[in-house]
Amino acid sequence: MNICFWFAVLAIAAVEPPDGNALLARVDANIGSNGKVIVSEMIIQGRRGGRSVRTMSWVSGTDRAFTEYLAPERERGTKMLKLGDRLWTYSPQSDRTISISGHMLRQSVAGSDLSYEDMMEDPKLTNLYSAEVVGPDSVGDRPAWLLELKARAEGVAYQRRRLWVDRERDLILREERLSAAGRLLKTMEVLSVGRYEGRWLADRAVFRDALREGGGTEIRIDSIAFDVVIPEHIFSTASLRR
Amino acid sequence: MLAFLAKGLLRDRSRSLFPLLTVAVGVSLCVLLDAYIRGARDGILRTTASFVSGHVRVTTRAAAREGVGASNELALLDAAALQDELERDHPGVDWTPRIRFGGLLDVPDSAGRTRAQTPIAGMAVDLAPDGPERRILNLEQALVSGRLPEAPDEVLVAAELARRLELGPGDRLTLVSSTMHGAMAVHNFILAGTVRFGITAMDRAAMLAPIEGIRPALDMADAADEILGFLPRFQYDDREAARLAAAFNTGRGEGDDEFAAEMNTLRTASGLGGMMDLIDYASALIVGLFVVAMSVVLWNAGLMGSLRRYGEIGIRLALGEPKGAVYRALLAESLLIGLVGSALGTLVGLGFSYYLQEVGFNIAGMMQDATMVMDDVIRARIAPPSYIVGFLPGLLATFAGAAISGLGVYRRQTASLAKEFSG
């Protein structure tokens, strides 16, 4: 028993930590795709109870995304379009297309623990951060590398991040988003993972805004398709009112 | 005797003029400061009650803990039933529900695209013509253009905000906010009119909407962030408010239900308790400091007078007048000076106070970045205490000054008087 334990310890110690930026590039590559179509559900736990929002998203590269709310009834037909650093939302109740900018970007999306700023963020982390491996760690029964990320520029919403990346699957299992001063702002924890078109992806994860009370926001991916050819007209303001 | 002393004071102005002017100036300052502090305190209380907390404020416990900026998620549910209960139990108090909301005001162009956008601080109130809010918020007088809302989808915005966004009555605008559950709320309204409250924090970014129009927009059916209570004649009475709150809170929402209703007074709900105490203490402190400072000045004046009247007092003592009689005569003189100076100072102080009561002192320039809900014009208020607040201390200070400086009479040696005169 003792010999096995020490062999295990030595085996862990013998694993050479990878280069942080290279590991981060592998994480980006795992989720990156030219065209993705995702159907997901957000379950938001507020102080007065939970509610869920179902959406369908078309994502092209890192700077174009179109999302349509499918449920609940009050929000059905609400659409959001991201084109580069611009964001519009269309509300069928008011038949208005509104440009979201400035301080509104910090507001919560549909009452969740995610903000519009989170949605606007470049999903390719290597574009925003430089990474350094702090050391080996684990999340649940999965061995992981703990990565410390520092923003390359000042305008990035989270100046620092700590990622726990699955050593075999290049998948983020846990994340802490921090301010420049080290104040915890948001956390993400993967609840379950699945294999989709040969990639390991988190299909259930819970986000928590550390600055507000509530039970967090769980995101469940119902379906995801990679390398889908998405018609160009989807990513236009005209499609918001369609 | 008094007539004799009065004649002396009138004929020898150097004996009376300086002390009299000193007392008059001090008393008038005391009256003015007292009236000004009272006016400022009343103004802060009035605007805080009208726009922030009422005289008493009913919210959920969670919202009370988070203060006026609490999220709509913590609103009171079944607000109509709660308001009915409050009206039944406390019929003399005006009860009115309010919803506060933030967000963006988006102004569309002719094609419906965003032409202008700005953050707003919104308040939804019961704008019914027979409701108390029009009076509480002084809306008829605050209206700058257009008219007051008559339909649920009509709103008022601050005149300055309307000017910046180039908005006029009849224009369409869209509120982008959050529902009670946190979802995005986008709702169209029509601008009925523009208002100016004379409160920089409100006039910068205020939007005022009928509560029946905001409730569907923010998914807050029969909900309200707060139900405010206003005591009869709009007079805040801390003890009465505390009594109301204690009666309401007793036995309500036992346990740790953070959504149970809780009543707080203006003092606790607005966080003004400390400030109110400070203002009250400041009045007493000013009068106290005035008495001490004036006593010192008049003591000094008395000493100078004694020096100047060194010869006169010496002759009076040499002629056989007892030291006690001389001392009492000095005290009587000081009382006469105190009476006349205090009366004069009170009149002058009341005059300045009246001017500040009617015209006020405009501090809008200092309030550009202020977030405190406070009138831009601070006015003094003359009240019965204004008539005596300076008078009695003026009299006391003159008397104390003379009493201290006059003790010098007892230090004069009658045996050496002849030598002093021969020198």
TrEMBL record, chain A:
Keyword field contains Lipoprotein: yes
InterPro entries: TP_0789-like (IPR033399)
Superkingdom of this protein's organism: Bacteria
Keywords on record: Lipoprotein
Keyword Lipoprotein attributed: yes
Alphabetized Pfam families for the sequence: LolA_like (PF17131)
Location of the Uncharacterized protein TP-0789 domain: 61-242
Protein name per the record: Outer membrane lipoprotein-sorting protein
Organism for this UniProt entry: candidate division WOR-3 bacterium
Lineage: Bacteria, Bacteria division WOR-3
UniProtKB/TrEMBL annotation, chain B:
Localization terms from the record: Cell membrane
Domain (ABC3 transporter permease C-terminal) ranges: 285-412
Entry-linked Pfam families: FtsX (PF02687), MacB_PCD (PF12704)
One GO cellular component, as annotated: plasma membrane protein complex
Keywords for this protein: Cell membrane, Membrane, Transmembrane, Transmembrane helix
Chain segments annotated as transmembrane: 281-304, 325-356, 387-410
Family: Belongs to the ABC-4 integral membrane protein family. LolC/E subfamily.
Record's bilayer topology term: Multi-pass membrane protein
Gene Ontology annotations of biological process type: lipoprotein localization to outer membrane
Residue ranges constituting the MacB-like periplasmic core domain according to the UniProt record: 20-210
InterPro entries associated with the record: ABC3_permease_C, Lipoprotein-release_system, MacB_PCD
Phosphoprotein is among the record's keywords: no
Protein name: FtsX-like permease family protein
Top-level taxon of the source organism: Bacteria
